[in-house]
Amino acid sequence: MNISWLVRLFVAWLVATAIPLHAKDPTSEQLAADQHAAQLGKRIYLHDQAAWHGTDALFELIEAKDHPELRGYLTEERPDGLVDIIFYAEYDGALYEFSRHTVDGSKVAGGAVNAEPRDYPLSPLLTRQVAARDAALSRAQAEKVGLCTDASPNFVVLPPDADDLVSVYLLSAQVEDEKYPLGGHYLYRVDSTGKVVSSRNFMNSCMQVPVAGGEVGTGNKLVGFVVSHILDDHPTEIHYFVARYTRLPISVSADGYVWKVSAE
Hints:
The protein is of the alpha+beta class. It has one domain. It is 28% helix and 31% strand. The chain has four helices and 15 strands. Strands 1-2-3-4 form a four-stranded antiparallel beta sheet. Strand 14 and strand 15 form a beta hairpin.
């Protein structure tokens, strides 16, 4: 019997609803945590897109081998909601802005290489974020954290929050166009002295989420993805980030509920 229409109907129902598996409703704390995760997931996605497309824009202008002074990049949120990517260079032990490009979603809106980078010292805030990222990467290397792909990991650094902690996300990189890893992502929280004060993973195993538009079996269009989550009683920012990246809604079963994680 051909059950492809039943598969599509069942998955569509799971994605379209957030019906609890128990009679009680989520608590206000769970709902607030879910909302916060959604906001963080969007920010991570926008920073990741800025890093991707801004890097491509820079290396259309220069050859990396011609600039040994380059040390890396950071992304920075703008008041208008866009995100800048700043590549920085080192001269005489100090860090300077080598280039700055502005990214609107997934499109580069403008930017340039600074003719005289020494005229643009890296701000104290960005300098702190460089130190935080380096501390997080050192911790990850020391602990030999498990990644879910063989490629070098990506990272997103968010500025100090209400607790004055910088958040550094270490992200397993995509290596297949039709899939994105849901596992192998980590968060490090770094204080103003450059000390990692906490860290966490978001999944105990590796799992790949299909990118929207793929098929399940023969002729069954994928309209959503279902995953069980045991580390939290609500979806995390990584669920929301991956849903946006794959353009695929994710239904997260956590603490007895199926939570809808939107791809928008």
